[in-house]
Write a structure and sequence with these properties.
The complex is a heterodimer of chains A (about 290) and B (about 260). By secondary structure, chain A is an all-alpha fold. Chain A has helices at about 10-40, 55-65, 75-105, 110-120, 125-135, 140-150, 165-185, 190-200, 205-215, 215-235, 235-240, 250-260, 265-290. By secondary structure, chain B is mainly alpha-helical. The chains are: A mainly alpha (about 290), B mainly alpha (about 260).
């Protein structure tokens, strides 16, 4: 393709200005407001207003109430969200990899149709989909009865209001975020490399781990990030499919903001969550050696 | 057995695909449900009443209307701003390219709860706590749709050969004629795709909207409220219609592009 000549001059700036301004005012500036809010005097209220007192103790309050694990089985909302997010991401990776691999290498002329089918279910409202799972996993429903019949679940065992239901919901709802980047990576792999591996007497499993998997790593990294970040912040699954024992951090932040009007603590929790996610993402991307993705 | 082994991955893949459709079957099934009680969510009997009277559920239709209004306006806003920015990024040279790329990437990667609560902190801090509603939702939706529009249109533009435009210029078309007769029609599928994506992102958003909605109720907020009180079956009618419309659009687009490819070949 001919190299496109990029024009210089004012027009570029003018075209860019509205979008840049919008994102600056409504995305960047709000982060400063959030950090400022987290440092307000906790004694304020809507009526009195809030004073800026650089009250760092808001962070201790937030962490003491929501960040500290109560016991080994009750991690508290913050750690629980990271834990559920991690398990759901792992499950998505397994399911998503099989699906993306099948579409890229095995679907032949049905490739495009299968890709469309991957996205199609997710055009129905997120909340309605999750409500459907509530029905599917209901106490006298098909799934629970089957699991009881094969004794995987006790006769009074249930799925709703358990961590299993919440993680299953998260896995389901964020699956396309995993499949699409994985597909993009796997689809690009040159088939001849895998054939070369088997010509050199690698068995299919060895060929997969020595050739296909390393070449698909960029997709694995971006897929896991695109799944993990929204899954940790999500609270729809935890609220509709779980019980208060499965409460996630997003629910706490929302409730502290809109119902308790406890802006400083809610702000502090948001900042903590953002910081943890950024730290984990940076660490992970370094370990995977794929910094160029960022 | 050999057959099974050879096609194992494909079979597993198809099974996973079937699994993703399970909730959709339930949504369509429940849209024909005649519930015995409002509180128990299960299939009790067949009826067409939900489809005949979708607005029978109190307040549901007005929430759908609100969502459509916000969806259309935010799609319009985000598509215009995003398309202009995509043109600048691909076709023009300017300082600060890498920070602009970062500014576009971050809203797609930030968790919704953090984005929504930051925006709420801004509105409250600026003294708009009492005015939360339609306009604050709209501002938020334009913000998070914008990046997706830029990315979609940019990839269309970047993959486009400029030989056709050069040919138009060689044939003495003015820059304006070249733009409207050659460039724009070529980019249009990308813009349309971006607009559809924006609309579905806006229509389905819950977390950011919930924080900045005030007393305004969009469709997802309505479903959320209904989930605490007992879900009217008409909600599933809306869910089924959303699914049908998007499948028609996506499959239609796919068939259309196949037809064009065949016409070109």
């Amino acid at each position: 393709m001919a190299e496109m000549v990029r024009r210089r001059g004012r027009t570029g700036y003018l075209l860019l200005l509205p979008a840049a301004l919008w994102l600056f005012v409504f995305f960047v500036v709000p982060f400063y407001s959030l950090v400022a809010t987290s440092l307000f005097d906790p004694g304020g209220s809507d009526a009195k207003g809030y004073d800026m007192t650089y009250h760092v103790a808001n962070y201790w309050t937030a962490l003491k109430h929501y960040g500290k694990p109560e016991s080994w089985t009750n991690l508290g909302p913050l750690l629980r969200s990271l834990w559920y997010g991690a398990i759901a991401t792992g499950l998505c990776l397994v399911l998503g990899y099989v699906l993306a691999y099948a579409i890229a290498f095995k679907a032949g002329r049905w490739k495009n149709l299968m890709l469309v089918l991957v996205i199609a279910p997710f055009f129905t409202s997120f909340l309605i989909r999750t409500l459907s799972w509530k029905l599917i996993l209901a106490d006298d429903g098909f799934v629970v009865n089957t699991l009881q019949a094969v004794h995987l679940l006790g006769s009074d065992g249930r799925l709703l209001a358990t961590p299993v239901a919440v993680v299953a919901g998260l896995t389901y709802n964020f699956l396309p975020f995993m499949v699409l980047p994985l597909f993009a990576s796997i689809d690009k792999i040159d088939h001849r490399l895998i054939e070369a591996a088997s010509d050199l007497y690698a068995n299919p499993i060895r060929a997969f781990f020595k050739v296909t998997w390393p070449l698909s790593l960029p997709g694995v990294v971006s897929g896991t990030l695109l799944t993990f970040i929204p899954a940790v912040g999500d609270y729809i699954n935890a609220s509709l499919l779980g019980s208060p024992n499965q409460r996630m951090i997003g629910s706490v932040i929302q409730q502290q903001f809109t119902e308790a009007h406890n802006y400083p603590v809610a702000g502090a929790l948001s900042v903590v969550m953002m910081t943890l996610i950024v730290a984990m993402v940076l660490f992970y991307v370094r370990r995977a050696g794929t910094e160029e993705l960022l | 057995m050999r057959y099974l082994r050879k096609h194992l991955v494909l079979i597993l893949g198809l099974l996973i695909l079937v699994y993703t459709f399970v909730p959709i079957f339930v949504v369509v099934l429940m849209s024909f449900n005649d519930p015995a009680s409002k509180l128990i969510y299960r299939f009790d009997g067949f009826t067409l009443a939900n489809w005949r009277h979708p607005c029978g559920a109190e307040d549901m239709c007005s929430s759908v209307v609100t969502s459509v209004e916000i969806g259309l306006l935010s799609t319009l806003g985000a598509t215009i701003l995003g398309t202009l920015a995509a043109f600048a990024l691909v076709r023009h040279d300017f300082h600060g390219r890498s920070s602009m790329n970062l500014l576009i990437f971050l809203p797609m990667a930030a968790p919704e709860i953090v984005m929504g609560s930051s925006l709420l902190a801004l509105f409250v801090g600026a003294g708009f706590a009492g005015q939360l509603g339609f306009w604050t939702i709209l501002i938020a939706h334009i913000m998070f749709c914008l990046s997706f529009v830029v990315v979609t249109v940019r990839s269309r533009l970047a993959g486009m050969d400029d030989t056709l435009e050069q040919a138009a210029m060689d044939l003495y078309a003015t820059p304006r004629q070249t733009f409207w007769r050659v460039t724009f029609p070529l980019v249009f599928p990308g813009i349309l795709g971006a607009a559809l994506l924006s609309f579905s992102l806006s229509f389905d958003d819950f977390i950011v909207t919930n924080l900045n909605a005030g007393q305004t109720t969009t469709f997802p907020l309505y479903v959320w409220g209904a989930a605490q009180r007992g879900v009217p079956m008409q909600v599933n009618v809306v869910g089924s219609v959303m699914f049908l419309v998007s499948v028609v659009i996506v499959v239609g687009g796919e068939l259309n592009s196949r037809r064009r490819m065949r016409a070109l070949a």
